Amino acid sequence: MTILYRHNKATRKEVKTIMKTLATIVAVIFIGLSTQALSEENTTIDTKVKNFLTSEWNSIVEFQKTSWADSKDQLARNKLQIQSLWNKIVSSTKTENN
Fold it and tell me: What is the pTM of this model?
C-alpha cells in the first residue's frame, strides 16, 4: 500500500509539472496572439489619432489666420478712433484757450 501511495505522489508531482508547463505554454500563446491583435489595432488607432491631430492642426491654423486678420483690422480701427478722439481733445482745448 505504501508503494502505491508513493507512486501516486510521484504521479501527482509529475501531473503538476505537466499542468504548469501546459499552462505556461497556453499563456505564452495567448499573450502572443493578444499582442499581435493589439499591434494591428494600434496601427488603426495610431492612424486615427494622426488624422485627428492633423485635422485639428489645420483647423487651428485656419482659425488663427482669420483671427489675426480680424485683430489687425480692429487694431487699425482702434488707432483711428484714438487719433480722432485725441484730435477732438486737442481742438477743444485750443478753442477754450483762445
Answer: 0.42
